[in-house]
Amino acid sequence: MNKNKLPKQEENFSDWYNQVIQRAELADYAPVRGCMVVRPYGWSIWENIQAALDKRFKDTGHVNAAFPLFIPKSFLEKEKEHVEGFSPELAVVTIGGGQELEEPLVVRPTSETIIGHMYAKWIKSYRDLPVLINQWANVVRWEMRTRLFLRTLEFYWQEGHTAHETAEEAEHETRQMLDVYTDFAVNVAAVPVIPGLKSESEKFAGAVRSYTIEAMMGDTKALQSGTSHNLGQNFAKAFDIQYLDRNNELQYCWTTSWGLSTRFVGAVIMTHGDNQGLVLPPRLAPIQVVIIPIFRSDDEQNVVMEVVGQVADQLSDLRIKVDDRTEMTPGFKFNDWELRGVPLRIEIGPKDVQKESVMAARRDIPGRDGKNSIEISKIASRVPKLLEEIQENMLAKAIKFRDEHILEPGSYSDFQSVLENNWAFSYWCGSESCEAQIKQETKATIRCVPFNQEESNTGECIYCGKPAKKKAYFAKAY
Predict the structure, then answer these.
(1) How far apart are CA 183 and CA 63, in angstroms?
(2) Under CATH, which number does the domain 407-475 receive?
(3) Do residues 81 and 205 touch, judged by C-beta distance below 8 A?
(4) CATH top class, domain 13-272
(5) pLDDT tens digit string along 247-275?
């Protein structure tokens, strides 16, 4: 096998994924087991995710703040479900400054507890509500099996934490933020997620309800790509978050939390990537257009580079890169930028200059079919439209792939076969026992129970055959 070639997805998807990340310089393994170093190109993707989400958060009235990395261990023990859910994943500090600490400190796995403590100090009256705060932070969860971006000991994310007067407001907030995630995933990342409700066994530790966006990866496995939790009054009661209501009576707040992490970078890689490497949607790509000059002599260089400058000026509103490396051949550059997933490559050589045109190669359509000749005078209008076409095509392609791999089996034996390489959309009676047996027998889990199912529709649970009112998506997952 050619060592310079990537493994093929269809032969070893996991190896393909790991090599794409390293060869495209998105991330590398850190000296601490299970941690990663996010390299500049990978961090640029995360910055674009941050920018898209941060705008949406602020448009819905949220503000950013920062809370400590260290949390007193006793805080986590105040909410029973929460501590039980996170205990196996905690990193605990017992020594500081050479001295044993009076109370151990937990390196935050999530911030509901310390933020709940602060909200109890800040909230006194209904006039203080709602509190709508988000923070961009790193968290630590001591995972045993790790994979770059998807599951690491330390990762980066945003976590929103809000407090409200009523249960209805908290539920509205929880669903609103799930809608924000869905909008971002579909319209910016071209990842066609399915929003829905998590089962009781899959919900966040300490939540009343957990909602999720689920995405299908290129190997048909599911990836939980963002979650939004209605915490009810569980944390408010644990941390005494109370307010005087409009009748001057003391009430507990209703709280929520929601988060999306660098795991989403993995979602983008595995949803769109191909055997040449990354394929990045234009709205998310750090570099939207790469311009590659082609010349053999100094005279050709002077002529070509003048036109390259003109083209670059016309595209200055976009994220562009001129690859003027002289030590690399054009062919090497083509492969290099294909690996990095740049949506559009513009080639400019002496013949293009004579024709007053350029050759544009789309990353989403490999080979000749993806090449377009564009008149230089029309570059400023044509290229943005081409990027929009790429964005739309990537979403359509991902939707088609997903829908082709979601099946509705008629029997449990068919259900088991379907789950080898697909998702199953099947009736489920709501029993945790059936859910547990399915997981044990198929290694698949309920990804979500989607919204907007007609109550009048009924069927039989795929496992036990008892009457069921809701269908759920079942799949093997990362």
Answers:
(1) 19
(2) 3.30.110.30
(3) yes
(4) alpha beta
(5) 999 999 999 999 999 999 999 999 999 99
